[in-house]
Amino acid sequence: QEVVSEESEEESNGVNLMEFSDEILLHILSYVPCTDLVLNVRRTCRKLATLCLDKSLTHTVLLQKDYKVNKDKVKQLMRDIGKEIYQLNMAGCYWLPSSTIDHVTRCKNLVKLNLSGCHVTSLRLSKMLSSLQHLRSLAIDVNPGFDASQLSSECKATLSRVSELKQTLYTPSYGVVPCCTSLEKLLLYFEILDRSREGFMLSGQLMVGESNVPHYQNLRIFYARLAPGYVNQEVVRLYLAVLSDRTPENLHAFLISAPGSFAETGATKNLLDSMARNVCLDALQLPKAWINGSGLLQHLKFNNPFYFSFSRCTLSGGHLIQRVINGGKDLKSLTSLNLSGCVHCLAPESLFRKAEDDIDSSILESLVVSCCNLRHLNLSAAHHHSSESIGNHLCQLLSRLKHLLSLALPVCSITDVGASVEKPPSTPNLVPQTFGRKVRIGVQTYPRNLGDQTNQKIESSVFWALMGSLRFLETLEIIGSSFSSAMPRNEPAIRNSLPPCVRAQSVGDSEVAAISQLTYLQSLTLAQLPNILTGSGLVNIGLQCQHLRTLSLANLGMMGKVVYMSALMDMLKHCKCLRDLRLEQPYFCAGAQFFQALSHCSSLQRLCIVSRSGTLQSDAVMSFMASCLEVIMCHMFMGESLTVCKNLQQSIVRSFQAERPALNVVIFPLLHEDLTEVIRDVPMRHLDEITLFKSRVAEEPPNLWW
Q: Which residues form the F-box domain (predicted)?
């Protein structure tokens, strides 16, 4: 039946949706998932049937987080609008069977295709690419068993025209890189494990038949991100060997993200020397060993740089100003800067300096003045202590960066100098330095509304002022400088944590309350805030930050007791837009009251709880999963027995898998010796985005991939 009817107009005094112009309706429809538009909405009336097939809605199809899509829906979608699709993003659709990829062949006009995280064999890839003659951008995974010799000549012809390639490697291989002779952008993600499931050590040598050489002559952007492990380092050196022979003249972005130690070799030194002579860069990231103690930065040339990452480098503030910022010149173009773990970056020199010494505010001021258009700034994982000089506090200087969209700071950097202490106070509120037995304490009640809380806010604090000046901030991370997650990537769970910085001892509820000024906040991470007594500031955030989608809380307040549980439950009742929740706290009790409060988060999709000695209530978890229909990921690493965890995991899968095709459930004892084996089976999308804790501000250049 027609939605627009005379009867509906007479009955309603309001505006009929169908009376809006086509332009307004198209804008509204752009927020609806494409599968719903094509398979449901367009069947409601003639007008919507026409609008839902408008080129502006079918040109780009995004399925990467459409967790309700299944094989049949994809098949019908491709059948209905396949020829109209020019860009298709299926990244992270791990739940779709590999046969789903066969239907992509209907999209004859595809220009961009993202299949990262999808199951694609060599033969299926060959068949699909053979029919996509207009393809110019491709993202795929290379899994064990991949064989480039199975690619047909038609497939290789398509790959020869591809100019943008993103390749995630789970096995030592060149993948399809040698076939892409026109590459301008190459993104490589190395996720190769050092050991097989059987425990055998793997080699970084490429498979037989992988002797073809990559073609880098047209390369403009080279990006490589390595997971921990020596095999990843061995394989990336093979990719870099070709670059060291001849550096592309048009190279303007060179980025390598490598955890731990990644030693410089003669080949990499030749590559860097060649880059210093022949290219002018706009983006740079190098392993710390390649920068530390070298004069490389003094010789590299920059054009209009938009991204720098010196994460974990020993670069001093003096070198930063002289060699990178160039004395304050030509850095208005810089929009993203990552100085995470760069402990001396705000000090004039690092030779005789302790990491806990005060920063030189003049260096930070030069940085702020020179890079006034910064949108993403990461200063986490370091002790940035401000001196007592008036007007030179780190927060006061950062408040000048009015364009900031994301910011990561260490906890000790936001405290007022007068409020900090030189030694831990002898009060019962002090955070225990080690895990111990549960301590029964009297928990203070907290104000239930903003009016009562106002009198307790320290609105004159520098952090309060900073939050007030960054009104458009979307992502905020406040992380303790000595914080480390209990779940590292490829190692057993950490059993002990380092104590928080002395300067951070006074950071607590009032600082958290200050965050509630960020009206447009979408992602919030708080880790190792020692002075959380009740968590009252969390309630303010829940009330005021109505756009909050991602929340990560770790080690707040006392380690032997979750003192903020009551406030957290009140907060969750207001988080209607929350999609991702990660909690890491010893002795966390995931019981009926917690899950009842969490059920108010009607948009929640992913939940991760990491808790040493934590407990859970199986019936409460099942009730929560039944009431929150959008939840497709439930990861819990607690202190329960293996039997309890397995039984609950099986019950959830058995009860909800059929209705939720993307459902991924992992419930496992945190300190179990097989934890790393369980982790390796988690889809990379979830593992990278929520399960593993890390700072994500300025982790990659903005808009690196669509």
A: 14-61
